[in-house]
User: What shape does this take?
Amino acid sequence: MSLYINDDAWCFFANRSGAPWHSPIVETMDEAGLKRHIDYYAVPGVTGILFNPNAMRAFFDSRAFEPLWKGLEEGDDGKARYQGRELETRCGAPEDFATLCRNVKALFQNVKDPYRFRYDYCRKKGVEMWISMRMNDVHYADDPTRIMHGELWREHPEYRRAAYKEKYSFWFSQCLDYGEKAVWDHHFTLVREYFERFEMDGFELDWMRSPFYFKPGFAEPNCGLLTEFMRGVKHLAREAAGRRGHPVKINVRVPSHPEEALYAGLDVVNWCREGLADMVTPSPYFQTSESGLPVKLWRRLLPDGVALLPCLEQHVGSSLPVRMKSTPEIDTGFASSYYQQGADGIYLFNHLYRDSINDWESQRKLYTFLGSAGALSRKSRRHVATYHECMVEGISGRAAFDDNIPANGSVSVRLNGGSIPAGSESRVLLGTAVPLPTSAEIRLNTVVCMPALPPAPLPLPEVPLELNAFSVPAGTLHDGENLIEIINRSDAEIRLRWAEIHIRVGE
Assistant: This one.
């Protein structure tokens, strides 16, 4: 089993003294800074780190994409500008573009070959070093004047998949259309540059940034174009392996459900059957990790030898307004359930976006055991019912549960509890918008659960919730899928907002 961690470029470049927004260390743009950054991740239990060198522009001196600092103007007043516009400086925030651009440029002035340095140092620390390419990143597409945007995107709106919706939709309408040869070639040129210039143990195609590659209604008919793209990548990986003297693996980060990947133009299962990918990472987009991620289905669809590494996001929630930052206990719950369903490892995305040094340290401790199903079985954990954030146009997402239980009605919540540790204690935890009627009956796998005190302390969403706890009789909870039933025997509606199974292990 294994653990891979995706390192967003912001994690290194956006830091500034006094405001470490999402890194435990304020990095310096030199070899010492690169070492400290890798040291944070490279603890026993971590298999590999995936570094992200591009969005719409490149975070290095690329020949294929414009370097991020191209067009950066430094004024005598100490302010940074792009095309005459002052770059935003929000101390420690993602919109601190001035610091971001300056730091990217500074690293390549101070270190001859930063990615070669990263590779060598990762090998010294015993972890794999990967390159993760964002295949269609459109951050801040609502503002075409930002320095983040590439010239192809800026100068050719006709290459965008739905430019006509610029003012009427989120960023995704402005993704580039791979049905345009110029767009396909533009991105493949960057792939080629990565393989020619960078030493790496593996190459990831991050199809989740962003999962929109064709004009509306043309994704599935154009699957062949992205399959051809993958064939080209595999060819380059084989060539690089021959030159470098070691294998170069390929991972694809794709939508969490196989049919949605296909609807996006990503024929993932066929790629794997052709031998074009060594690993698959089914992923949510951003808002929550998914309790209903179909690990068993992916395992049945993928051929033997292809590693399955479901992705955990930084947030968790039963709905968009009812969510919170994930915690180590919650991540442990997701990982336990995924392993029980056949996952080969775990993949973390956005997980360094934390708020305090205590969060960073607990996160780092999590790295030591998240890649081991055996170690997880001895840990307390929370199994939270979360919704599915669908990323396919014309298909709605799936709620975690029916949140309004009518009078004299009932709702069921399905949760995978992983492998249940011997001697553990369990609670069903329900959050409601109003007090739960005393007549409500809570069952787990048909067994009645009696009211109990909730575990404390217990981080919860910031929205107001009435937390209700119910003890689970010994032997009731079993490995794999479990069913909570909430039976409303009152004449008033129950507004359910949160549901989880908490497993306590004497550690």
Remarks:
- The radius of gyration is 24 Å.
- The chain has two domains: 2-283, 404-504.
- Residues 2-283 form a domain with the TIM Barrel fold (CATH 3.20.20).
- Confidence is low (pLDDT under 50) at residues 17-21.
